[in-house]
Structure formats: structure tokens, C-alpha cells
Amino acid sequence: MVDRVIPTPEKFASCPYDEKILPFYKGQFDCVYVMLHPFFKPTSIDIERFGPPTWPNKHEIIDGCHPVSWHEILELTGLKTLSDIDIGLRTSIGGLKKELANKTISDKLAELKDQSIFQPQEGDLPPLLENRVFNAIKELGHNWLWVGDEFGTERKLHWIDDLIVKDEIPTHGCVFTHDHSLLVTTHWDSHCSFLCSSREVIERILSSEPFEGFYCTPKTEVYWGAYEI
Predict the structure, then answer these.
(1) Using an 8 Å Cβ cutoff, are 206 and 35 in contact?
(2) Residue 223 CA: distances (Å) to CA of 53, 88, 105, 156, 177
(3) Using 50, 70 and 90 to split pLDDT, how confident is the model at 2?
(4) Could you tell me where the DSSP H helices lie in the chain?
(5) Is it the case that residue 229 has pLDDT exceeding 70?
């Protein structure tokens, strides 16, 4: 009997897991920008809906919530760095080894709920970023995008305008252009997404949509908050 071994996923359609980000994409993308998923505050949605099975859909969140940046969270909590927030968020979902976790920070972030500020969900490109990403990619001249799963085993081609209207990205999914020049992917245990392309393309995107985040260095790990970035 032959073992069924899944082929190695293509770099233009996959996500690194527990390793350095830029080395993972070597030969495919020379630049990666870490897009931080915003916290959010409901403005016209009952906060009681933010739990299963009544969680609002994509367009309800876009229309009924206000994004709260990580830099605003630093001011509200007194935390010092973006890495502190990353560690606190990962601790809250049990996503860090015990020696890297920090419950004090996690508890401080949890207190934001008293101000009706919710933490971003891990593993998903959030609704408050999704259509902004699609529109920025459209401005580059693309009209189609592939949407695939995290393992690179399933993918479907979509007209971007249809993606804006619908909610098609799977959990931990990847979105990439037909010419393989651009990828947006979300690590399953992270509260950020990776925007992968050339430096020129990423700067064009950020000039139209200034996503909060930072550029990877060769040392930036997937679990970046716990290591030198």
C-alpha cells in the first residue's frame, strides 16, 4: 500500500507555520507586510450578538462596527509594544507555549470588553479589512482572484466584485492573483495576515489603503511577538 502524501503546497498559495516568514517565501516573494487585524467596537449591533450562533455576518460588521487600531489599543491599555498585543492575543487563545505566554497582558486586553471593544478573531482575514484588500488589488489592475484553502489543495477563481459582495474566503484561507505575483494569507493561530508580493506592489497598495502593520525582516517569525522582528 502506498502512503498518500500531499504534495508540498506552492508558495504563491500557502502560508508558513512555525518558521521565519521571508525565508519561507524565498524565490516567490521578496517582500511581506504583516497586516494587523483591527480590534472593533460595535456601533449599531447589539453586543450580545457577538457569540455563536448569532455572530454578525461580513456586511453587518462592515456597516455596524468601528475599527480600533493596535496603536489605539496601546494607548487604552498602557501596553508598550505591538509585540505585547500579539503575545496577549495569542495567550488568550492558548496559542503560545507556557514559557512565552503572558496572562497579565491577556487579561488586560480582555478588560477592553468593558468598553465594548472586541478582540480580532484568529485565523481569518477580518471583514473590516477584506473589502479594502479587494479594492486595493483591483486598483492594481486585477479583476480575478483565486481563493484557496490553507493547504493548497482546493482553490476557485472569483471575479473580485463578487468577492466584495459575498463572503467566500475560508477559515485560514489564501487569496492570490492569477499571475502569482500577490498573495494574502492568514496563519491559523494569528491575528494578522501576510501581504506577499514585491516591495513596489506592496507600497502601491499601502498608498491607497494604509493598512496598519509592518514589513518583515529576514528574522521575523510567524509567532513574531515572541521574537525579534
Answers:
(1) no
(2) 30, 12, 16, 29, 26
(3) confident
(4) 21-24, 58-64, 70-77, 82-92, 103-110, 127-139, 160-165, 199-208
(5) no
